[in-house]
Amino acid sequence: MSEQLDYTKLIEQSDYQKKMAAEKSVELIEDGMIIGLGSGSTVYWMLKRLGERVKEGLIVKGIPSSKRTAGWADEFGIPLTGFHEPMQLDLAIDGADEIDGDLNLIKGGGGSLVREKIVNAAANRLIIIADKSKMVSHLGESALPVEVLPFGWEITAKHISQLGCVTTLRKKKKEVFISDNGNYILDCQFDHIANPKSLHESLKLLVGVVETGLFIGMTNQVIIGENESIKIIYS
After folding, report:
1. Helices and strands (DSSP H and E) totals, the chain
2. Is 42 within any annotated ligand binding site?
3. Is 82 annotated as ligand-binding?
4. I need a surface site. Which of 26, 71, 88, 199 has the fewest CB within 10 A?
5. Residue 101 annotated as lining a ligand binding site
6. Which residues are the active-site residues?
7. Dihedral angle at the C-alpha atoms of 49, 54, 56, 59, nearest 10 degrees?
8. Strands laid side by side in the 165-169 sheet
């Protein structure tokens, strides 16, 4: 019984750290901004708090990086727009699966890496929010998501594996996972990603690869929920 209680407490602590980081990031949003809205469980808490500020009178518009994020934004009353209106975003706030010491990221655990990268690249500033478990000494402890075209994905997977990883076609409930863009995702497990920039460039050169989950040199600020406090890291 005590083990179960400890496990529950651990889950609640992780959520609390995410919530702290997320709510801190909303303090950086100013009236009139156009915001890139990332994806993932930590972003949920950011959207919830942002929705509260919108109800209090804050005027903003958001561009969501996934259908799920768009649904949350609608639920919380956050006005949305698209790239037909702004060509540059004031700020993007997103989560991450891994963050290294140089603030390079692995993203795409939820399958939205392409749209996330488009939104984040269009922002003047990218802020990453996460709990402390996402900080790593080097990228690659978890599998690297790579979005690929469905046609000939087997050949693409073979070429990716020659870069030194084991590739697994992502599935959900025994069915092939389809991204918001209608593509497949290969989860690629490397022993160690020594040079994220070089690996990203090598992957992008392969025919059939749409985008990688390596976000290199994009992050301006990381907000980490750590125990009972907030840690902020600048690039």
Report:
1. 6, 15
2. yes
3. no
4. 88
5. no
6. 116
7. 140
8. 165-169, 184-190, 144-148, 209-212
Annotated binding-site residue? 41: yes
Query: Nearest Cα to 131, choosing from 47, 230, 220, 48?
Result: 230
**pLDDT (tens digit, 9 = 90+) per residue, 35-86?**
999 999 999 999 999 999 999 999 999 999 999 999 999 999 999 999 987 7
**Contacts for 175 with CB less than 8 Å, ≥ 6 apart:** none
Rg of the chain, C-alpha, whole Å: 18
Which amino acid belongs to residue 10?
L
Q: How far is CA 122 from CA 63, 65, 91, 187, in A?
A: 11, 12, 9, 26
Contact (CB, 8 A) for 167 and 186: yes
Instruction: Determine how β-strand 105-106 pairs with β-strand 214-215.
Output: antiparallel
Q: How does pLDDT run across 100-133, given as a tens digit for each residue?
A: 999 999 999 999 999 999 999 999 999 999 999 9
- Please give the distance of CA 147 from its chain centroid, rounded to a whole number: 14
State the burial class of residue 38 (Cβ atoms within 10 Å of its Cβ: 0-12, 13-18, 19+): buried
> What does DSSP assign to residue 93?
E
Structure tokens at 190: 């490397």
Q: Is 38 annotated as a binding residue?
A: no
Which residue in this structure is represented by tokens 């698209």? 82
For residues 150, 156, 160, 162, the Cα torsion angle rounded to the nearest 10 degrees is 150
Q: Which of 94, 152, 155 is nearest to 127 (CA)?
A: 94
The answer to whether the annotation marks 108 as part of a ligand binding site is: yes
Q: In what order do the strands lie in the sheet with 91-94?
A: 61-64, 34-37, 91-94, 126-131, 221-226, 229-234
83, 122 contact by CB (below 8 A): yes
